[in-house]
Amino acid sequence: KLWLTKIKKPFALLVYDNHTDMQPPAFGGILSCGGWIAASLEELKNLEHVILIGPDEAAYEQVEEKLKEKVIFLSREKLQEMNDAEISRFLTEVLCETLPLYISIDKDVLCPDDAQTTWSQGDMTLGEMMAALEFVTRHFKEAGGKILQVDICGECDPDGADNERNDAANRELLKF
């Protein structure tokens, strides 16, 4: 959210995450990783909409209806039914090249075979994520759109992690 507050023009936010990050604060008004998207939607006037990819449908059903008005959601379950062409078609429909894009990647959306995180994980493969990110990049470049910034989070406690797997995922994401 900190980086989003610095954007002074209308933009869209593309998020890959295993969680909605739209939960109400557990401790009063304290911002946490579980509610940063909700806080951004409520507080940042330049945030036009969020494209959220990865959480399961049950988690999204718990999101407040007023927040959903500015969210385009692609669930974990729907992703499992789609092939690369269908995902590309979805992204083409929801991306607006005239609106600058901020991309946020939480590695917990990845399956445990491709990365190990401290939280519950999704089942997206690193290859699937990279194919989608490469499509977004190519799509924006061809249309003359602008990707503002990318953030990557979801590191595991290094003492209990399979660092080879995590390092391989980080290398691929850093190349992107």
Task: Please provide a written account of the structure.
The longest helix has 18 residues, at 126-143. This protein has 8 helices and 5 strands, in the order αβαβααβααβαβα. The model has no long low-confidence stretch (mean pLDDT 91). With 176 residues, it is an alpha/beta fold. Strands 3-2-1-4-5 form a 5-stranded parallel beta sheet. It has helices spanning 2-5, 36-43, 57-61, 65-68, 76-81, 84-94, 126-143, 163-175, and strands at 11-16, 47-53, 71-74, 101-106, 147-153. 39% of the residues lie in helices and 17% in strands.
Nutshell version of this structure?
This protein is of the alpha/beta class and 176 residues long. The chain contains eight helices and five strands; from the N terminus they run H-E-H-E-H-H-E-H-H-E-H-E-H. It is 39% helix and 17% strand.
Oligomer: single chain
What share of residues are in beta strands? Answer: 15-25%
User: Number of helical segments?
Assistant: 8
Name the overall outline: globular
What gap, in angstroms, lies between the N and C termini?
Answer: 21 Å
Count of β-strands: 5
Give the overall average pLDDT. 91
Unreliable spans are: none
Q: Name the helix and strand elements from N-terminus to C-terminus, one letter apiece.
A: HEHEHHEHHEHEH
| Proportion in helices | 25-40%
For the sheet with most strands, the description reads: 5 strands, parallel
> Strand order, biggest sheet?
3-2-1-4-5
Structural class: alpha/beta
